[in-house]
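User: what does the whole thing look like in 3D?
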Amino acid sequence: MSFGATLGYMARIAVTDGMANDAIALLEKAGHEVVSQFIEPADLRAGALADFDAIIVRSATKLPADIIQQSGRRLKVIGRAGVGVDNIDLQAAADANIPVVNAPRASTQSVIELTIGHLLACIRHIPRSDRGMREGKWEKKAMKGTELQGKNLGLIGFGRIAQGVGSVAQLLGMEVHTYDPYLPPKVAKAQNTTLHKKVDSLFQACTHISVHCNYNQETHHLVNAERMSLMPGKSIDGIKCGNHIVNCARGGIVDEDALLEALRSGQITSAALDVFETEPVPKGNELVQHPHFHGTPHIGAATLEAQARVGRDIASAVMTVLKGGKADTTVNSHLL
Amino acid sequence: MSFGATLGYMARIAVTDGMANDAIALLEKAGHEVVSQFIEPADLRAGALADFDAIIVRSATKLPADIIQQSGRRLKVIGRAGVGVDNIDLQAAADANIPVVNAPRASTQSVIELTIGHLLACIRHIPRSDRGMREGKWEKKAMKGTELQGKNLGLIGFGRIAQGVGSVAQLLGMEVHTYDPYLPPKVAKAQNTTLHKKVDSLFQACTHISVHCNYNQETHHLVNAERMSLMPGKSIDGIKCGNHIVNCARGGIVDEDALLEALRSGQITSAALDVFETEPVPKGNELVQHPHFHGTPHIGAATLEAQARVGRDIASAVMTVLKGGKADTTVNSHLL
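Assistant: Here's the predicted 3D structure for the full assembly of 672 residues, as structure tokens:
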């Protein structure tokens, strides 16, 4: 089966930040020509996209307004092989009548698993224990931890990833609390979570907080010193489990200076971040050196499965648009 | 309510390896006298237990035959605040008509959570990522991992802990395979797992193996070079996820030399142990230095919750025997 052949139309597709081989094969089998190589910003500005019907980027390629305006009339669709579209000017694309499509579901399972991994690594001191063992120590007493069971988990944002994290947490015996002003309350209720109308009350109720919202002006430093100070440190089952923070969503939602201070004061017992205010994290960053902190370098979607899925999903969405259809993952529909 | 008062009988109870304060309070509230301090082996041999009705130990106090025989007629029950009873001569206790009771369920949840934590820390390189970040690196590409979803998890032993691990794994989308020659097959079937009659076929079917059996002659080095070489490295969903080994059960079940060799050859992609052939692990151990290995110092039961529960459970079991009853966690029933 070849969509290209069916349509009698072969598109030229620029893949500038790499893509899984399977996904490229999918485009080629459909009859399209794929040119997979990075294009320098200067070349983009000089009109390098004029010969392409579609471009598929990740985060390295930036598509601001001037580049999109420069791209001529042939460009019909911009694909983002991933979730975040901060690197694409959605309005400029809409003005040029170009839908921007992404692949928001591809990494859901990977981020759910990393979040649970970080939560458990936090409360059981897994990276800290391992460091001790590599130094020839046997710090059994110092590594006493707590269970997730019987604790309140607060999820900031209750989209697909948070819902998956919530299900695992509930199976482990946690009580799940949620805060998401943009979701119909019935979603939180359907999963038997306690929905909070104010984020402060979520912090008051929960010893464990995991971040699952977008980054924007509203969520910038949403996890700050004041809110962390509201966390109870003691669980509903009476255990002094301390307070724990995990963020596998977007950098900048957690105030990292405040987090370091709270780790130092003991108000926060452990914390794990996969995303940071500045990435790559600059050398000498004190937060990543704190003994009760552990970090991973933005690997939420960095699995073989998520990358294969993201390729398939974005190839499919791009081909839908090339065929004249509307992809259900179009992110600038409201502007078109 | 006071059992001691009800019975008109106050027992003297030696607690030699420490116990949670709540549990000591429980015994005292029941009217018993608790003497909480370590007793040297020489003093035990000299008859230090002659004045006690009960002794509650963890693993530090050893109760071989000669000490039990020396302990006079007053001793009515030996409590092990935990699971393993390797430190107590069960036959000698039975010969002296002394039930040995333990607290096998107290740490179940803690070990389940640690096992899932280790599995996720393995496949997402959590400790290795954190080491890189502490060195000022941003190794996003090197830390590409895989998902648990879509993989076969092999559980060696399918008791309470393995059943709990299996439930979480199933929720995450794993297919669970089990091997347990001592369990009625209906237990494995009730949880929709694939029961293997031979352990070799479990290894052939699974890219992820977690150990949940006792240590004995039969299970010594059960995870060996030959069996690890049977693991497929590729999952049922076609992903080259490699092979992964976790052991939070007992040291000695995994052949550590063979594991190190398999990590070096790449047959095993990652491994995590909470228990080791020699504990504390001697300095200079090469396995704990391997980049794709991470370890914790036997902390499966090292949580506030498990320790509180173990205290309550063992206090309750000891008081049951002191009242003339039979504790359902008596481990030498078959010898009495």
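In plain terms: The radius of gyration of chain B is 22 Å. Chain B has two domains: 3-106+304-322, 108-295.
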